[in-house]
Amino acid sequence: MLTLFFVDDLPTGAGVRYEFNNDDAHHAIKVLRLSPGERFNLGDGKGAWSRVVIENVNKKSMTVKVLESGFQEALSTQFTVVQAIPKGDRIKESIELSTEGGVDRIIMWKSERSIGRIEDKLEKLQHTAREASKQSRRFRIPEVESAATRDHVIDEIAKADLALIFHESATMRLSQVVTPGPKKVLAIIGPEGGLTDDEVETFAAAGAKVVLMGRPILRSAHAGLAALAAINTALSVW
To answer: Whole-angstrom Cα distance, residue 104 to residue 158?
Structure first.
């Protein structure tokens, strides 16, 4: 699959020439060492894309020509992960993994047992989602939203067709609960220390279903990807 880079001013239309000169262009030249004749994709992060061929390479920029353009429609099912804020670098890791799993929105949630903080990191986390989107060759960059309160999570549950809480105390497996049909799916991921009984009861009362992902207990940062993979399979999206 062709390498993907994002630009703010996406060129479209076969034959259009474009000066590719942002930070991604520098990476393509200095790290990937792309040369004239090679092809890659440019995207706007919102679904639009253009396949281009390199005509000329300079020190910090390159001239490319558009071969074809298109638009990738969003999936009919939209996935939101409510991620309890993990600690340290695992915040970034949770964004990367959920992005690679196909999430559309990531809502960072300040749960009772969350240790990490993101008040000054939202812009960096959105950049992380952008970089992970390039790595996973997806034309749509997911949104990363700032730390939500419990009430915000309850509001999101009300908006979803299917809301799931993953917790080791659950008596139902995910495969027993999820069947094809929902268009707005919400997955709530707890922190390293686990969800409190009060949080589980509150969200369940709001309409979320408490389910078991499996026997192994995953790290909070990894659980979002596992949940997305399982849900996509159960909904026959994958």
So the answer is: 18
